[in-house]
Amino acid sequence: xxxxxxxxxxxxxxxxxxxxxxxxxxxxxxxxxxxxxxxxxxxxxxxxxxxxxxxxxxxxxxxxxxxxxxxxxxxxxxxxxxxxxxxxxxxxxxxxxxxxxxxxxxxxxxxxxxxxxxxxxxxxxxxxxxxxxxxxxxxxxxxxxxxxx
Length: 149
Ligand code: ZN
Prior knowledge:
By secondary structure, the protein is α+β, with helices and mostly antiparallel strands. The protein contains six helices and four strands, in the order ααβββααααβ. The relative contact order is 0.21.
């Protein structure tokens, strides 16, 4: 149970209870619903781009503590980043939660989610907001992003 308790470290609890950037962005057409049917997580991500930079990013929706905390931390990290920087952060994060391999110091706050790789069902919770954001940045024409497609 120790590993499982690690999953719910203080930072995850804090971001779950007080999610950052938990709001809609009204003056953008860049938004997308993400759905993880296995857990019931539904996260909607909003992005505003200026030039090649993410000038604002937010989310709404409901889900488990892991999915909400991951979305909340994501918005704090990606705001102000260029599209290329955001994609690189996603690659490092995705590698960390699927394989456990990561430079934890470099991952910063995201390091609290490193333990997720030991729980395959939870990987989808942690990745949901990120996959949704990346689909927006990659200009994918989707109505919804699902972890089960
Ligand atoms: Zn979940």
